[in-house]
């Protein structure tokens, strides 16, 4: 494997930004210093003058649709789009067909990823009302965690039995990641909307149907249950300002038992965008008010929210163009997440150091991922270079997702990812894929 020397980069790592070099030998970072000399004639040298160098993003929530929904996406197509977006590792969700709710089905997904994934990978095991015995068989050193749908589930994955929930929270040693929306509230709101609009409910009703109340009821119950049982809880995709008050911004992440995530779409869009984007920005939980978006940014910068993710969940354009009731929720995001965040950096919302903390360092700490998420000697060489002065516009012909569309179509970003390195190999370089990388199964430093 060819050595790579990255020269003159603006290295963003562990709360600092400094000019320096990084040497990669094999699949590891061999040195980080102010000036590293070329030792071998066959070393590939990348002049990164003026570019940011970051640890690759670890996306803790994606839906790559394989198995069973591969007309929308596959592990191969979406992991390839992910490396174009600077995501070098991902954790995928269990609501595929069949659902990953047994050890056998989960390991089949790992086997498929080993064959086809461009990026490093792990998978969540799925909880149901009746698979506690399987949950207790999961080895926490080999699997990212347990996903519980406390709302907006597919198949039989809605875990709505209070006794079952408490038993799961009490007995599992897995990190529990939860989708929190109260189904009873949503059903009531939907029924009322249908009584007025029939099947012609306007998309602008989405944040009223999947309301602040629905989110807060569910999130607050999950947090209370975690405190009661001592479970390790990570609440996915916060979408409301009100929910942020449930979380602590003062403790170091390593000492937290209850953590939270926010997704790119809830940091970028507001309810005003439904008028132009329509069902392309229909997600669960819903994109809500500008005040909610501002509250999420504030909580993120105050460390009440610990992780930024994508919740990448592609559907075909034909599916998304259905009316509100029939259009599925979710959209593709992995290719554009980091560039959207750096755009928000330029607008004063967040610093480069905080982006790296929330997209790389914190997912590695929170999930106890071994040897990734930092630019450190001896760590895996998962790295991203971003040119901060290379404007480009998202168009059909430069979208990498299998579904072929993006909610960012027409958006011009000032910055552009130039290189993504996965395990010491250049997976993406200036719009091309020079090497067919094969991601590795993530490993975890857990007792």
From TrEMBL:
CDD domains (UniProt xref): DHOase_IIb
PROSITE patterns in the record: DIHYDROOROTASE_2 (PS00483)
Domain Amidohydrolase-related: 52-426
Cofactor: Zn(2+)
Gene Ontology molecular functions: dihydroorotase activity
InterPro entries (UniProt xref): Amidohydro-rel, DHOase/Allantoinase_Hydrolase, Dihydroorotase_CS, Metal-dep_hydrolase_composite, Metal_Hydrolase
Assigned EC number: 3.5.2.3
UniProt xrefs under SUPFAM superfamilies: Composite domain of metallo-dependent hydrolases (SSF51338), Metallo-dependent hydrolases (SSF51556)
Keywords: Hydrolase, Metal-binding
Residues spanning the signal sequence: none
Primary role: Catalyzes the reversible cyclization of carbamoyl aspartate to dihydroorotate.
Record family assignment: Belongs to the metallo-dependent hydrolases superfamily. DHOase family. Class I DHOase subfamily.
NCBIfam families linked: PRK09236.1, pyrC_multi
The protein's name: Dihydroorotase
Species for this entry: Jejudonia soesokkakensis
């Amino acid at each position: 494997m060819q050595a790579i020397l990255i020269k003159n980069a603006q290295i963003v790592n562990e709360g600092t930004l400094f000019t320096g070099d990084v040497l990669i030998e094999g699949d590891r970072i061999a040195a980080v210093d102010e000036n590293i000399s070329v030792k071998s004639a066959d070393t590939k040298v990348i002049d990164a003058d003026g570019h940011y160098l970051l640890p690759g993003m670890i996306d803790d929530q994606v839906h790559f649709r394989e198995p069973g929904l591969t007309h929308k996406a596959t592990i191969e197509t979406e992991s390839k789009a992910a490396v174009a977006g600077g995501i070098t590792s991902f954790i995928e969700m269990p609501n595929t067909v069949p659902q990953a709710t047994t050890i056998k089905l989960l390991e089949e997904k790992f086997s498929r990823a080993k064959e086809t994934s461009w990026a490093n990978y792990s998978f969540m095991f799925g909880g149901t009302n009746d698979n506690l015995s399987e949950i207790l068989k999961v080895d926490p050193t080999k699997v990212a965690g347990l996903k519980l749908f406390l709302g907006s589930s597919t198949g039989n994955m809605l875990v709505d039995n209070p006794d079952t929930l408490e038993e799961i929270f009490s007995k599992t040693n897995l990190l529990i990641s939860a989708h929190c929306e109260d189904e009873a509230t949503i059903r009531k709101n939907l029924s009322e909307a249908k009584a007025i609009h029939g099947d012609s409910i306007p998309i602008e009703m989405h944040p009223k149907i999947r309301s602040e109340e629905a989110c807060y009821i569910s999130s607050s119950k999950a947090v209370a249950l975690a405190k009661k049982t001592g479970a390790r809880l990570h609440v996915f995709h916060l979408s409301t300002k009100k929910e942020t008050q449930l979380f602590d911004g003062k403790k170091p992440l390593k000492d937290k038992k209850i953590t939270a995530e926010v997704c790119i779409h809830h940091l970028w869009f507001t309810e005003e965008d439904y008028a132009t984007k329509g069902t392309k920005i229909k997600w669960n939980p819903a994109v809500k008010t500008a005040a909610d978006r501002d509250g999420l940014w504030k909580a993120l910068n105050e460390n009440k929210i610990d992780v930024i993710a994508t919740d990448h969940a592609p559907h075909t354009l034909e599916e998304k163009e259905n009316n509100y009731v029939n259009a599925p929720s979710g959209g593709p995001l992995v290719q554009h997440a980091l560039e959207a965040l750096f755009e928000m950096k330029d607008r004063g919302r967040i610093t480069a150091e905080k982006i790296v903390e929330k997209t790389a360092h914190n997912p590695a700490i929170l999930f106890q991922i071994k040897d990734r998420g930092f630019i450190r000697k001896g760590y895996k060489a998962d790295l991203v270079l971003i040119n901060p002065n290379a404007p480009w516009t998202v168009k059909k012909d430069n979208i990498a997702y299998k579904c072929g569309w993006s909610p960012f179509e027409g958006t011009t970003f000032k910055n552009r990812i130039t290189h993504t390195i996965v395990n010491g190999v250049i997976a993406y370089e200036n719009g091309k894929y020079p090497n067919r990388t094969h991601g590795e199964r993530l490993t975890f430093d857990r007792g």
